[in-house]
Amino acid sequence: MTDVTDLIRDRRGPQPVDAACAVAEAAAHTAGIDIRLLDSVSELEAVRRLYEHIWRTGENNPPVTADLLRAMTKAGSYVSGAFDEGELVGACFGFFSPPARETLFSHIAGVLARMQGRNVGFALKLHQRAWAMPRGISEICWTYDPLIRRNAYFNIAKLAADPAEYLPNFYGPMDDDINRSDDTDRVLVRWRLESPDVEAACDGRPRLTDAEAARARGAAVALSVSAVGGPVAGRAGSSTVLVGVPADIEAMRESDPACAAEWRKAVREVLGELLTGGARVRGFDRAGWYIVDRQETE
């Protein structure tokens, strides 16, 4: 189904690598797709067109160019594509951080909207993990918009990646129909490839958390959603706090950009300050809550 086995045919490693390949193969099979590494100019040009379509940028401002991807593959970086009956429906690429850190920075991963619900993005990340581990990579990092619920859940719960830094306006202005005029605040996550939580998540056991249960145990609500959809600041005095985000920030950017801007400012002030102060995001409840420990739980 995928070329994961070929990735390590000449590099057979210890059992964790074999297990990573097995779960990657299973994820691709479940999604009903083929995943393979890409390196030809025509394939990489198809990735450029796919990203243009997903982010609605137009030809004059592509998220990445085929020539840059071509140079990255020559340098040994990771570029893969997901295919549904021969059609490219998703792609992912990343490059290496400093060698001493044994880290891959995964820059862009995107899947066509019509493929949502088939776990194509999950299969792509597991393929990336299976490619990385036999190359001595222990961690993959990437950024995501903390206001997008589905991305927070995917990264923190489904993949068990750990938020590490809040990065205000990280990319500066981006001329696409997804970010619009909003500041490009991002959260950097670290995916520790052989951690127990990540191994469990890749095996289909996500890191689930319950915001209501945390609240019943005394967690404070530091940020919530008002009846009309705006941010409502609360208190963050307890050891565990809940930080809410709106149901659909992307739609809000179109229908009420002023409210979307208020949300950006509120999440930056609350979640950003918590992470900067050393707090740890324990999880993300699918109902739209970050569960954040201001100190390690016992």
TrEMBL record:
Matches recorded under InterPro entries: Acyl_CoA_acyltransferase, GNAT_N_AcTrfase_prd
Signal peptide: none
Transmembrane stretches, start-end: none
PANTHER family: GCN5-RELATED N-ACETYLTRANSFERASE, N-ACETYLTRANSFERASE DOMAIN-CONTAINING PROTEIN
Protein name, UniProt field: GNAT family N-acetyltransferase
